[in-house]
Specification:
0% strand; rod-shaped
């Protein structure tokens, strides 16, 4: 004797979502597949022609088979469109500009409150640029001397 719940078969259709007509058709199709009803009884009960019944039954079986095909595991890879890339680039640029603006505002506040700090920083920056310029010139002169 088999253990477990008794097989429900076509009665499972009652718990599904769908129109009553679709449920009735599916139930009758399952009864024909299970051998509980002949195809002739089924298409007469549903008021369909023989060919229409076979077409609906075959379509149902094909749809069921397609839904049971193995699918790749995980979420499908999302394709990033050109618009999405452009949107991301612009969003990043906006964030960078906001940061630059915030830095400029802080510098302006420092300049107003503590002008001597910015002058010292500007002086240091100028000295560094001049030093770089002298090093480049010396390097250039060494290259010219080697060529001679």
């Amino acid at each position: 004797m088999a253990k477990g719940r008794p097989a429900k078969g076509p009665e499972l259709v009652e718990g599904l979502e769908g129109s009553e007509e679709a449920k009735k058709r599916l139930e009758v199709i399952l009864e024909t597949i299970g051998g509980q009803k002949s195809a002739q009884e089924a298409y007469e009960q549903l008021g369909l022609s023989k060919s229409m019944f076979h077409e609906i039954r075959t379509g149902s079986l094909v749809a069921a088979l397609e839904s049971l095909e193995a699918k790749p595991k995980g979420r499908p890879r999302q394709e990033v469109t050109e618009d999405q890339r452009e949107n991301e680039r612009l969003s990043k640029e906006v964030e960078e500009l906001k940061a630059a603006l915030q830095i400029a505002n802080v510098r302006e506040e420092i300049a107003l409150v503590m002008p001597h700090v910015l002058k010292a920083a500007d002086g240091k920056k100028k000295r560094m640029e001049e030093s770089k310029k002298r090093r480049r010139q010396a390097k250039s002169q060494k290259k010219k001397a080697r060529r001679r």
